[in-house]
């Protein structure tokens, strides 16, 4: 009860004091001198200027902040552009590398194929070399035999062939057999030049040549079975008198000097060996 009374008394005093202060200030303001009023106005103006300066600072801060935001956005845009460009470049580089890898794989495939082809060619060349070596060996043997034949008495060389003329007389069959034993055949005359060569070398002797119609009358063939194309029969020959089946060169001295005789008659003979190099 006493506290309530005391509180009311305190509140009453405070309100009185405040009312008195306001009264004093009003009196004081009313009683101000013009200088004091001017001073008061200046203070008010200064306060207003301070408020105006604060606004400008605030605006400047906002502008700076906006500029920072713009710069930040610009930096982000530039960075994004660079990243995009680099990404495109990396993608392009990747595509180029992929293309190069494909090209390298294609080149590798071609090189592998070429390597296989070269190996095949090497194998073929090796086989051809072996064949050439065998042919060279055969040619050397033939050359050796040819030198031996040419150096043997009775042999002569004419137009890629060598010829042997006998010094004894035998029948057509024995003469042919002798030629075979020498690796040759009774002479086969294929040209006018060869006919003239035989005519000069026999020196007027009658000599067996490799033509007969023993297999079929009237069908004259050489000893190798080929048909007679260049025929140098004497006039009226072959006439097959008494079954004449073997040919002799030398009936006359003219170019056409062949005639048919009985095969068991004996004459010298000429063998011919063709040189196959
Ligand atoms: Ca005949
Ligand atoms: Ca005759």
Automatic annotation (TrEMBL):
The keyword Membrane applies. Gene3D superfamilies: 1.20.5.400, Mannose-Binding Protein A, subunit A. CDD domains: CLECT_DC-SIGN_like (cd03590). GO terms for molecular function: carbohydrate binding. Residues 101-149 form a coiled coil. SMART domains: CLECT. Residues 158-272 form the C-type lectin domain. It comes from the Eukaryota. The chain crosses the membrane at residues 60-81. Keywords: Coiled coil, Lectin, Membrane, Transmembrane, Transmembrane helix. PROSITE patterns: C_TYPE_LECTIN_2. The keyword Transmembrane helix applies. This is C-type lectin domain-containing protein. It comes from Silurus meridionalis. The lineage of its organism: Eukaryota, Metazoa, Chordata, Craniata, Vertebrata.
């Amino acid at each position: 009860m006493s506290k309530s009374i005391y509180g009311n008394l305190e509140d009453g005093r405070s309100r009185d004091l405040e009312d008195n202060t306001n009264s004093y200030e009003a009196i004081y303001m009313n009683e101000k001198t013009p200088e004091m009023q001017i001073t008061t106005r200046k203070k008010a103006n200064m306060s207003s200027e301070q408020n105006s300066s604060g606004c400008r600072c605030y605006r400047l801060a906002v502008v700076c902040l906006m500029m920072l935001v713009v710069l930040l956005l610009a930096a982000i845009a530039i960075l994004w552009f660079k990243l995009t460009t680099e990404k495109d470049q990396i993608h392009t580089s990747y595509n180029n590398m992929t293309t190069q890898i494909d090209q390298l794989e294609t080149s590798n495939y071609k090189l592998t194929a070429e390597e296989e082809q070269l190996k095949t060619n090497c194998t073929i060349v090796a086989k051809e070399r072996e064949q050439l070596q065998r042919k060279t060996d055969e040619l050397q043997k033939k050359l050796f035999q040819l030198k031996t034949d040419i150096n043997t008495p009775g042999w002569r060389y004419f137009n890629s062939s060598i010829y042997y003329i006998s010094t004894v007389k035998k029948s057509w069959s024995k003469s042919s057999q002798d030629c075979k034993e020498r690796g040759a055949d009774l002479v086969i005359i294929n040209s006018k030049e060869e006919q003239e060569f035989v005519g000069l070398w026999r020196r007027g002797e009658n000599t067996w040549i490799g033509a007969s119609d023993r297999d079929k009358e009237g069908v004259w063939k050489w000893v190798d079975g080929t048909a007679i194309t260049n025929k140098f029969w004497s006039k009226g020959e072959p006439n097959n008198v008494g079954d004449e089946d073997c040919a002799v060169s030398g009936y006359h001295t003219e170019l056409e000097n062949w005639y048919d005789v009985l095969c068991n008659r004996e004459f010298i003979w000429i063998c011919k060996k063709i040189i196959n190099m």
